[in-house]
Specification:
- By secondary structure, the chain is mostly helical.
- It is 73% helix and 0% strand.
- The protein contains 15 helices and no strands.
- It has helices at 2-9, 15-26, 44-73, 79-88, 90-98, 100-116, 123-127, 137-158, 164-169, 173-185, 187-207, 209-228, 232-252, 256-275, 292-300.
- α8 (137-158) crosses α15 (292-300).
- It is globular, with a radius of gyration of 23 Å.
- The termini are far apart.
């Protein structure tokens, strides 16, 4: 009887069954446990509030870390003097930048709570943290390099007006090194988890892929406008980067390729920032003679 059952188990499947299995294996990326990042268990309000929380944490922690120092050392009386102090005092600038690190860590904690419902669901699988069949590691790296070259061209066309963030970060090498660290080690992960992970998935579920792409593009760009005003070229570059990353997320159904693209894009800028003093035409010595690559790195390195 057991032998009969063994033979029955080895009976070849019909051709239709193999086709169904192949389609299931290629479907992005619902797993055998029923997890589908394009149909998340969290709703649109959870996604939007996660985004709002990420912005609020950046603002609040910046105030908490900077205000005690300002109250002690700021001697002026007007708002203009205060704004100038925050942009020129090296310690005040460094405190503002350092505040992004705890903000990023708390944002990841917030995203984890929303995605996992405080540990009841897997975090990475729920976000689609895996490779796509058509977009792997080297494709992601190539796309990042292409986006960086496009960003250089857009920055040259849009002009080289100084941005508020650029003036702040140019205050000291300590500030530049800190931003380079954050731009590479924390910002790509946090931004992708929040924008293309939690937020995009929730919007796609509620209003569809096309409007989800538009929504993420607008929110990502709007957050950065105050930092890069009035440089239209840099603002447009941020919009193009956000659009490209969100299209990768929509096309692949996965978040890992987006993270690698973002990581490499920021990594190139961070490397330029670190090496800037040793470059032939350092922007700190001659603003007009500096290359567009250095200028772009100085302008875009605070991507969250």
């Amino acid at each position: 009887m057991d032998r009969i059952n063994d033979q029955t188990d080895r009976t070849p499947l019909p051709a239709d069954s193999y086709a169904n299995v192949a389609q299931t294996a290629e479907a992005p990326p619902a797993s055998s446990s029923g997890i589908d990042p394009n149909n998340p268990p969290w709703g649109v309000w959870a996604g939007v509030l996660t985004w709002v929380g990420s912005v609020v944490l950046l603002v609040v922690l910046s105030l908490l870390l900077t205000l005690p120092y300002v109250f002690r050392y700021f001697k002026g009386s007007s708002n203009e003097e205060l704004a100038q102090f925050l942009k020129t005092d090296k310690t005040a600038v460094l405190l503002q930048i350092l505040s992004a690190l705890p903000a990023h860590l708390l944002t990841l904690g917030l995203a984890w709570a929303v995605v996992t419902r405080f540990g009841k669901r897997p975090f990475w699988r729920s976000l689609g943290w895996s490779w796509s069949k058509n977009v792997g590691f080297w494709t992601s790296v190539g796309l990042a390099v292409a986006l960086f070259l496009l960003a250089i061209a857009m920055t040259m066309i849009g002009g080289q007006q100084k941005t508020a963030l650029e003036e702040i970060v140019a205050s000291s090498r300590a500030a530049s090194y800190t931003v380079a660290f954050l731009a590479f080690f924390t910002a790509p992960l946090v931004e992708e988890v929040v924008y293309r992970g939690v937020l995009y998935s929730a919007l796609r579920k509620k209003i569809g892929m096309q409007w989800a792409i538009v929504g993420v593009l607008l929110l990502f760009t709007i957050v950065h406008v105050p930092q890069y005003w009035p440089n239209a070229g840099v603002i447009a570059t941020i919009g193009v980067l956000s659009l490209a990353l969100t299209l990768v997320r929509a096309y692949t159904g996965r978040l890992l390729p987006c993270f690698i693209v973002h990581l490499v894009f920021n990594g190139i800028q961070s490397l330029i920032i670190v090496l800037e003093p040793y470059l032939p035409h350092s922007i700190t010595n001659d603003e007009q003679k500096a290359g567009a690559i250095v200028y772009l790195a100085r302008s875009l390195h605070g991507l969250m």
